[in-house]
Amino acid sequence: MRPVFAKILIANRGEIACRVTRTARRMGIATVAVYSDADARSRHVALADEAFRIGPPEPKDSYLRGDRILEAATSSGASAIHPGYGFLSENAEFAERCGRAGITFVGPPPEAIRAMGDKSAAKTMMERAGVPLVPGYHGGNQAPDFLLDQAERIGFPVLIKAAAGGGGKGMRAVEHKAEFDAALAACRREASSAFGDERVLLEKYLDRPRHIEIQVFADRHGGCIHLFERDCSVQRRHQKVLEEAPAPGMAEDRRLEMGEAALLACRAVGYVGAGTVEFIVDRAGAFFFMEMNTRLQVEHAVTEMITGLDLVEWQLRIAAGEKLPLVQKDLRISGHAIEARVYAEDPRRDFLPASGRLVHLVLPAESEDVRVDTGVRSGDEITVHYDPMIAKLIVRGSDRPAALERMRQALAEFQVAGLVTNLGFLWRLVQDRDFVRAEFDTALIERHRSELLAPSAPAGEDALTLAALSQLDAGWRGEARRPGERSSPWSLADGWRANQDGARLLVFQEGERRHSVTARRRGEGFELEFADKRRQVTSYRREDHRLTARLEDATVEGSVVRLGSRIEVFMPGRHHVLEMHDPLRQELAVESRAGDLEAPMPGKIIAIFVAAGDGVEKDAPLLILEAMKMEHTIRAPARGRIARVLCRLGEQVGEGAELIEFEISGKEAAA
Question: CB-side exposure of 470: number of CA atoms within 13 Å?
Fold first, then answer.
């Protein structure tokens, strides 16, 4: 069969670019990648048939440059552009420019993008179409005093949302009137940075709601269907963490009702292609329109898993003018699917995004019921320029309990070393009692924060056995010698002593904990002495990072990754980061003043609220750092005084840069 397009350009990066490339290749379509300088050696570039550089790392100079992307499409002879999600995927002007250039934009008409891209205008349109709305204000008057009056009319708590936004950016929940002005200013800054539009709308903040969205598709021949719902209620900072389909507890009559409302929204704007209509559902079960995303969603994979369909293929076929492959009565739900977003971020630091090199990456084994969508490989960098997602892990089971068990197994196989991730957090989350019982809402993570973010259990004897063997094995093989040094018996650290029973003391630091292991060579193995017992390792085998230790009465297996003095140990559902400590080396004592404040990650200083000499209270906001299109407020660690401000407004700072010299007040310091 002749492919719907001969060649298609993918105007995106990461896992979605890889995903579209795989589908296009299966359909016999040649693919063209675009890349920034940060992505020159990325996976999506390697997978494509051709690749074009479009600029430096900053999105505004590369992936948001529609002119450069169109130039690449023209130069390569591509007849269509797939925008993925994010960047230009919901940019009506770019869709229009594609049309003028004679290139098919794989997405809805520009008019539909424009209508739904303005959240305020979309709500007005939905109101006229009879789609239920959350009480709020979505008009054009943006005067702060007027908006405050509207918030009081709606009744606190209220939600401020970017009118042109999405993805949790430019969004704040406001509990009290006194917090409104600061929250409004923050939303406007974030919205302006992310979307180039500082307008906002207001909604009544619903108590413990669910977030349920409907996947829709429409063609140019009048066909319009929905592919059931997804529950995206498990969120942090208004951004989704887990998604599943179908929604737990969804009654069939309610599914039909929400599906019809979503189709009503589609028809109201003359929609074509893939889209998602998002609803908020209150505790009584009433649902209200929130917004429509005029693109494929990150979580589209769970819908694919329960329907057996390839939604990217549907997008391409509809863009080429074909009819929808199925009608509503032909669609069926098969099983239950769950998706987890694996991020480079630190959950214990308010999910602060992380950057760095993926020194070690092992993905779960894929099968019919386990899928991993990723745009990275071992050795790749997670940079500060783009979203820090490492992968999407999607599983399917015959029912929700089976899918949960499969997700736990897959998370236990997932290994990342080199930078902090949310894998441990996800492991706890999918075992959370309320989540397992499907008794959750959008505040689940915040409500269970103490349990989900509790310190990990210390490394046990199994993990310490593997760490010790890894260190001993390195010495036994001569890996301890310096680069360029000739092989010599003196470079071995195998514990051998003339006429003595040699022992080696290994000390591992794990956060604030310290573990000691005494090792003695015994034939092909070792005797390991812990605080209260001894273990006989009769033999061990190392294959790359995989280490298997045979004890007298058991076998211990896991992966061990060595990064200089750091040793990372992976066992099912557990990950321990240990630092080798040499007790014979005199440690340098580095004094640090408790009040000195450093940048937690690279970013731009976009607001400074204090000056030298100011006195501040504990938790007072001092400045705002913008990184990865999100704002991070640096607060006073205690009551004290600003000695010096060491950064400037608009300055780009690196991780660890000193921002403020802070003096703790005498009483606090003494405590």
Answer: 30
User: Which residue in 91, 90, 106 sits closest to 31, CA to CA?
Assistant: 106
| Structural domain boundaries in the chain | 7-106, 135-204, 461-479+496-581, 597-670
Model confidence pTM above 0.70:
yes
The SS3 assignment for 581 reads strand
Nearest to 142 by CA among 100, 91, 198, 95: 198
Q: Which fold has domain 135-204?
A: Dna Ligase; domain 1 (3.30.1490)
Of 170-184, 220-234, 520-534, the range with the lowest mean pLDDT is: 520-534
H helix or E strand, kind and range, residue 264: helix 252-268
Q: Could you give the CA distance from residue 466 to residue 340 in angstroms, rounded to a whole number? A: 29
Cα 432 to the chain's mean position, in Å?
20
CATH architecture of 597-670: Beta Barrel (2.40)
CATH of domain 7-106: 3.40.50.20
Mention the CATH class of domain 461-479+496-581: alpha beta
Q: Where are the alpha helices (DSSP H) in 196-251?
A: none
- pLDDT, tens digit, for every residue of 113-163? 999 988 788 888 998 999 999 889 988 899 999 999 999 999 999 999 998
Indicate which residue of 13, 230, 295, 341 is catalytic: 295
The answer to whether residue 408 is catalytic is no
